[in-house]
Design a protein that fits this description.
- Strand 3, helix 2 and strand 4 form a beta-alpha-beta unit.
- The protein is built from 13 helices and ten strands.
- The chain is globular.
- The protein has about 425 residues and is an alpha/beta fold.
- The longest helix is centred in the last third of the chain and has 40 residues.
- The chain has a single domain, classed as Spore Coat Polysaccharide Biosynthesis Protein SpsA, Chain A (Alpha-Beta Complex).
């Protein structure tokens, strides 16, 4: 199989703690005046055997810096001439969107773009289809790969049928820290007595060292995720889930009759920068889990989907997508405020975030199902597309000057 590696990378203007800027907020985008974690990720990729095309998708938290962010990424990639890279920035997105309009998919343009985690991953899948990749391997820009067999391990089991009759078309590895730990250390504090997210996460990962090596999973890790074309051509990421789009993909796959598997022998080192605000991350989780609960409830009315229940997703994220999520989110926000850290932010979450998240979920979860029904046809049209493939392979060039306003100097002497 011919794999391609997809690296989403997120950028911001400056270091800010961030407030309530709407539902789509990136966890820890790289400040535009730094190189961030991307160089270390690329350096580790240089050691990987069988490395082919590397697709780097550049998203910015502020549209005013999207071209500057693209320039920054291109400058970083100049230091890695041995990597066959393709940068997807505003110009490439313009070409992709124009082609989608030509193919009569203008109605789904927002779902394939640079404005949310899920939309960015959908860009990666569409580019993989345009290039004719057999399977896409997602790696986040804050991951470090230590095993030269990374892609070989990624391919192991893909396309095979399990003893239970399930075909492995998508599988995830898992994250470790520098010491090889893959579970969160320490007991949950008192103010998380109704939340205990880390405990549920640890329980879900307790199977990593146990046989069988590859098993169906309710969790997935977007920075170590392999998806075969028979899956990604038929199942999209959800652009309206604000965080945890990788675990949401497990739900999407199950709804459409598939599974995402967890490989106990495939991992990467995760080196995430510190979150600028724990309260903001909690707020995003409130939006995420309430959205997932609404999505599962709405899917019950869709006769063509396999039903996915919170119980089938236990221990994680099942306990966070059932009907108790609203009151538990409010109670946790209040208790975290009482702990004294980011007090005003948590009180604000307790007062307004659950209602806003419920409204957001009600307004948007149906949009995913409408988009998903269009996805297989879109991907079929884009597979090795004769108009876009030459642009992405370099046979034809994208003229960025008209888009960026950075026209070349014309000498008259």
């Amino acid at each position: 199989m011919e794999p391609c590696v997809v690296i989403p990378t997120f950028w911001t203007r400056r270091r800010v703690r961030g407030g309530d800027r709407g539902p789509f907020v990136y966890d820890h985008p790289t400040p535009i005046d730094t190189d961030g974690t991307l160089p270390d990720c690329l350096r580790s990729l240089e050691t990987v055997r069988g490395l082919g095309k590397v697709i780097v998708i550049v998203a910015a938290s502020d549209s005013s810096i999207e071209h500057e962010a693209e320039d920054r990424v291109r400058g970083i990639l100049d230091d890695f001439p041995g990597i066959d890279s393709l940068v997807v920035g505003p110009a490439e997105m313009g070409s992709l969107h124009r082609r989608m309009e030509q193919l009569e998919f203008a109605d789904v343009l927002p779902a394939v773009g640079l404005a949310s985690y899920g939309a960015v991953r959908n860009v990666g899948l569409t580019v993989a289809a345009i290039l004719g990749c057999d399977f896409a391997v997602f790696v986040d820009d804050d991951q470090v790969i230590t095993d030269p067999r990374f892609l070989e391990i990624a391919a192991e089991g893909i396309g095979e049928t399990t003893a239970g009759g399930k075909v492995i078309l998508a599988k995830s590895g898992y994250y470790t820290d520098e010491e090889g730990r893959y579970q969160v250390a320490g007991a949950a504090p008192w103010y998380d007595m109704f939340w205990r997210q880390d405990d549920a996460y640890n329980e879900a990962l307790g199977v990593v060292a146990a046989p069988p090596r590859i098993r169906p999973s309710a969790v997935a890790f977007g920075g170590c995720l392999a998806i075969h074309r028979d899956m990604f051509m038929n199942v999209s990421f959800d652009p309206w889930v604000v965080r945890g789009e990788d675990i949401d993909y497990v739900i999407n796959a199950r709804m459409h009759g598939g599974d995402v598997f967890l490989d106990g022998e495939w991992s990467v080192i995760h080196r995430p920068p510190a979150l600028p605000s724990e309260a903001r991350a909690f707020r995003q989780d409130v939006f995420r889990f309430i959205y997932e609960h609404r999505k599962l409830e709405f899917s019950k009315s869709q006769v063509d989907l396999r039903q996915v229940t919170p119980d089938s997703l236990t221990p994680y994220p099942g306990r966070f997508v059932d009907s108790s999520i609203g009151w538990r989110a409010r109670a946790t926000a209040v208790m975290r405020a009482l702990s004294g850290r980011e007090r005003s932010e948590y009180l604000g979450i307790a007062r307004t975030a659950v209602a806003k998240a419920s409204s957001f979920a009600r307004d948007n979860c149906e949009r995913y199902f409408v988009f998903q029904r269009r996805w297989p046809l879109l991907m079929d049209r884009l597979w090795e597309d004769v108009a876009l493939k030459p642009l992405l392979t370099g046979e034809r060039r994208v003229d960025r000057s008209a888009i960026t306003g950075r026209f070349p100097v014309i000498r008259t002497d």
